[in-house]
Amino acid sequence: MTPDRAPGGQPPRRVLPLVVGVLFVMAVLTGGWPLIDRALSDRERLPGGALLELGPASGTAVLRVVGEGWSLSKAQSDPSFSYALSRDGVDVVAGYVDLTTTEAGAGRLWTGLRRVQSVADADSRLGAPHPVTSAGGARGSTGTLTRGGRTGTATVWLRPDETCAVEITVLAKPGAGADAMAEAMALVRGVSFPQEAG
Question: Model pTM?
């Protein structure tokens, strides 16, 4: 009998726990890894038509997700202040802006947005603002935005009582999906301020 074999040709008993342990670890890594990855993932899939309430009070502003396949970055999103969504090379960032009476007005908001964009990236270029009206009747301004080799738009929506605003940037990588870009723009136009409706 050799010293590394048990009687009958079986491995020694001290090797069995090691083999079982290795098999268990392999099973966890192969079968459990997708679950672990999902738990640690920053991305949350959003269903088409999902409503995202933005602002410190419920219903301050509402964004409606248009189309399927959008994902929300949990690390960059806080319902009180901002949402960051992406799909097929298109990034949408919506932010809540609390206003004082001296800040109210689309012109001042555009100037503030230009400053914010230049701080985020010195090479950002924000075009001249053009007046725009949302699907719900809110007034705002929109213009072209370029940053980091991406192009898109920036839009500022002013709440009718001028207590707050929503700023939304849409940036697309070269070759980004046309459907995703169209749906992002539909999300931008669909911003509403439901408390003002009553």
Answer: 0.74
